[in-house]
Design goal:
Shape: globular
Structural class: mainly alpha
Helix content: over 70%
Number of helices: 18
Order of helices and strands: HHHHHHHHHHHHHHHHHH
Oligomer: single chain
Strand content: under 5%
CATH topology: Amino acid/polyamine transporter I
Radius of gyration: 21 Å
CATH class: Mainly Alpha
CATH architecture: Up-down Bundle
Largest sheet: none
Number of domains: 1
Number of strands: 0
Amino acid sequence: MTNIKKSIHGEWSSRTAFILAATGSAVGLGNIWKFPYITGENGGGAFVLVYLLCVALIGIPIFIAESMMGRRGRENPVNTMLNLSTEANTTPQWQYVGWLGIIAGLLILSYYSVIAGWASAYVVKAFVGDFINTDAAQVQQLFDQFIKSPLQLIFWHSVMMLTTLIIVARGVGEGLEKSVRFLMPSLFALLILLLMYAMTTKGYFQGLHFLFNVDFSKLTGKGVLIAMGQAFFSLGLGMGCVMVYGAYLPKDISIAKTSIIIAAVDTVVALLAGIIIFPIVFSNNLNPSAGPGLIFETLPLAFGNMTGGWLFGVLFFIILVFAALSSAIALIEPAIAWLIENRNLSRKLASLYACTASWGLGLITIFSFNVWSDIKLFGQNLFELLDFLTSNIMLPLGGLAIAVFSGWLMNAQHSQQELNLVSDNHFKIWHFLIKYIAPIAVFLVFLQVMGII
């Protein structure tokens, strides 16, 4: 295998395009609510410091490794792992790491699209004034009625999947790149607008204190493991997205530099979300630890009863939709690349098959909130079980495998050649982190989410 091979799908036109695309795949619904929520529960500023350290020591090294493996393989994750296994003179069974990523992407998108559909519906609800002058009971009733309607959920899920299909069917340059060049700057512009509003609220400084006050007495050992997990999951590692996007990366672009920029932007978005959300929460005497309900049950109440709430409610849910779309196109791309390369399908037909499969799987999530709500496995409904399987089992295993393969099995000279770092010391630091620190940390996260530690 030569390392001058190019992907048959095309390449990103520039480093900026790759940064926007990879950042888009990382920035999602979790950045908007999960990071602020778990930060508040785990020590505020102390948790943020640990999280940033974990991004540097775990997230960035694995992101670099997955991008590097993708660019060296230049194909879908299955073929890339097979090619790299041959090059490393090791078992071809490593191709199943690629399969793990592709399947995880399809499964995650199946329920991600449903939740993103909720955000789309709430753009309309905010626009027509459904939240104006409501109380907590009314907002709760509005949400309950919505998720108990299979037809409404199927409609909005279909809208999100159709939009995703239209984008990915157009290819790397015309579809993926053009969409993220619009989605990501728009998302940042909307975040800045909401930030400016948050700065005018009476709860602004209380929100900053809640998010950034360093109190290590509130940070437990479990909180440190949660920070590790968030650093890992926030960058979208272990699901094939980074690997397949790396396959479209031109040879002259530095993987290390772009990975650091992407991790930084992803973290900034999460912090901005917290700076925006918590002042609104505190200004309206709401519960900052509302978790998932913060988006669809708590914030609509705030938007409906504050000055300018109509406009800012619409903008907030548009942000959620944009974040979800930029992640959706990344989640489906590994499967599309496999269908094109291994089944000789056209781009449009491969996109149709992959999106249809994910749409069909999404019905499991939709029905778990209504007609199948009584079905429980291991104490969880079908959506919760699917989320646990992908986020807590498949992704950590994929990330662990990438760290082990790139650190222990790949030829160090090949890695160094692909990364082209400015000095041998920089490569040695990365190689040490990917060989020892990252695998141990991800393994500990895996044990924590499984309830073993």
